[in-house]
Amino acid sequence: xxxxxxxxxxxxxxxxxxxxxxxxxxxxxxxxxxxxxxxxxxxxxxxxxxxxxxxxxxxxxxxxxxxxxxxxxxxxxxxxxxxxxxxxxxxxxxxxxxxxxxxxxxxxxxxxxxxxxxxxxxxxxxxxxxxxxxxxxxxxxxxxxxxxxxxxxxxxxxxxxxxxxxxxxxxxxxxxxxx
Length: 179
Hints:
Elements: E1 21-28, E2 32-37, E3 44-49, E4 61-63, E5 71-79, E6 84-96, H1 100-111, E7 114-120, E8 125-128, E9 134-142, E10 152-159, E11 166-168, H2 173-176
Antiparallel strand pairs: 1-4, 1-7, 2-3, 5-6, 6-10, 7-8, 8-11, 9-10
């Protein structure tokens, strides 16, 4: 089997990347039915799924996150002796407050396998867990102690994939959101 060889040149490093996640969307992994890619396999061009219970359309639920509170990292686990590389998508998010809705999200994420789509602060969309899903690895629902402490839900979702995250065509996002 031939391996992909490194074949890209980046002449100048860009300094226009704004870090962070501005929007997060969560779908049940089992509700995603098909995923289509563009001709170059560099972007998701279509996703279909089972419409969420009680919704008129869509299968991704929107989670409102505050500025500079949530993020994403795609780590690798490489074993040269074993000849393998795995990718570990990790989404961290905070939902403020201790409402019954936030509690239900906490309870649901503890049980569910999900897919997370997110929008970066620079306006790009990506999806994590599309092949194997993401599971909650840690979660805290707390009041905090001091006035400056965070009050609400903090969650880490992790997965294990054969490929790194992939961009999503922004023109397909609206049709996938629960209405």
